[in-house]
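Board work, copied verbatim: Pyridoxal-dependent decarboxylase domain-containing protein 1
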Amino acid sequence: GQDMVSILQLVQNLMHGEEEEETSQSYRLQNVGEQGHMALLGHSLAAYISVLDRERLRKLTTRILSDTTLWLCRLFRYENGSAYYHEDDREGLLKICRLVIHTRYEDYTLEGFNVLYTKQPVIYISSAARTGLGQALCNQLGLPLSCMCRVPCNTMFGSQHQMDVALLDRVIKDDVESGKLPLLLVANAGTPGAGHTDKLGRLKELCEQYKMWLHVEGVNLATLALGYVSSSVLAATKCDSMTLTLGSWLGLPAVPAVTLYRHEDPSLSLAAGLTSSQPVEKLRALPLWLSLQYLGHDGIVERIKHASQLSQRLLENLKNLDFIKTSVEDELSSPVVVFRFFQEYSNRDQTPHAAQASTIQHPIISNERHIYDTFNQWLGEQLAQLVPASGVDVVELEDEGTCVRFSPLMTSAVLGTEIQDIDQLVDCLKMKIPVLTSTLQLREEFEQEVRRTVGLLYIEDLGWPGLGVVRYNYHCDGKNDDKQEKELEKINTELLKKLNELESDLTFSLGPEFGGQKNCVYIGMVTEDLDVSELVETIAATGREIEENSRLLENMTEVVRKGIQEAQLQLQKANEERLLEEGLLRQIPVVGSVLNWFSPFQASPKGRTFNLTAGSLESTESMYISKAQGTGTTPPPTPTSSLAKQRLPGQKAFKRSLRSSDGFSETSSISHCDDLDKMDQRPPTLSPGQEQGPLEMEKAEEQKEVAQAKTDTGDIDSDKLPPDCTKVEDQASQR
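↓ predict structure ↓
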């Protein structure tokens, strides 16, 4: 065994060992205030209280449970209700389903699944409900998936996130006629995605008609504690049961969720597991009992009211932004704000919902919608990264697509979101909108430029948030697929490296880690001053340069190999010629030395040098004569882009404004040449009082013809020309 100090030290290391990597968790731990410590204290107190004697434990747990239930029923306007406290927020609905089964099937306790087989139960949930909720209920209840019926939302009238009541009525009638038993309906007071509330009043009437149980859940139930409650949410107080998640609403860690319900038979509640005879089970309410007393009624209402004010502040700012479409249920009070970036076009067909300012217009073309989903995914990630205290996240909606969601009731109490964070979020959104619009507008131009450029291949990747994807095509000459793939990867990798070395505001990458295309260059978001033609031409020229250098190395390897073989043959032949010239006697060791001393043999060294530029062998005689190594032929210049421009200090590459300045300089130089031509055509200027006679005019004409002839033949001396003409010729030659 180990002592307590060692064990606690181990726990501390496990808690804070990865704190530097997981910044989000460390940020949350810093915002646990005194009310959070009060909730955490409840768990340890519950463990200590459980060791009391049975009678004292029973009295204490009964007091804690009754007080907490009474406070919650009064706070959320739910009269004569009972409470079930559970850790998993789906467990309350599961217990309610068991309660309804026990209530509607009287012989269920004795016969079990046999009574369900004779009359199949049906549970109705909205298509906008939480993902996997119906399957989880069926698995826990032991029912087939055919017992779960998903009710579609409105398609013509009303919110597209509300349950279609008329369609639900027809479905229930069909189930009753087919011998099934409608059991329970799960409605939403704030859908998980968009935060819309179903028509709870009409649903309650429908449930009473078919003797069904109505269960309500959702984030909008928190507004029942406020002084002003919308009528749609207020109807939830008449339902049979509701689930409250107070931990996220009030920022209380490790407090249980609560399911409030109304039922008259306590034996059935006990059979369903909603109540327990064990006193320890009742201690689940202790953390909540402590936290509610610490916050008080005013503190609870203030936290919920603050979250509603945050959503209203954001909604008011979003109304003034272009290219931002919101999807909210109520313009005056909507706890959840969902918005997305969308650029309207004049030629797009308008739907009936387009007239509403609060309705998101849907793209008609599937590819266009996919692009908008990608851009909104990028926008949500950027906002969450830049303003982490806002708590925004990305949500996938069935009709609108990918959207950015702000649900302060679920995040503000934990993250400590304030009004300043909302203002910062709006400022960041204003900075990102021009980038999104510019990138969206230039994507098509970039695709056209790439398709027109030889050597480049445009890769269509709708899931990439950026300008586009391009690949440099390697021109293979009879190579197999493996070698061609390696060369293609090598060239595009080197191309990416070269592009990142340029001084530009663009981001070049290999694309996403999973699901991206191989051997491609991914270009990120751009601004409106991007010169697309220069960018594409630079990519093509850089790719050609890399390919030519690669081919040059391959060719040079073969040339050097052949040059070495040829040099060996020539040197062998030169050695044989030297032996013939020197004679046989000079090759004998002793005799040759004496003979060379009496009669020295003068022979110039005959070596060979290999010219890499020309790819040929040359003699080294010139090197021994001049005592220096020759430079050989000047290598050809490196190919560059035809659109390469001279940038001023501090200016970035691929800026469209630079093209206009170049065009201005060319225009000005051309106009300057025209002015010089006009000046040459003018008659010579005379001083005042001087007249030009016939003889002077004839001499002037002869001089003009001679000068014109010299200009045409190129014999005229440039030093005698005016400086302006010399400058014009230099500019013309540069062009």
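The mean pLDDT is 80.
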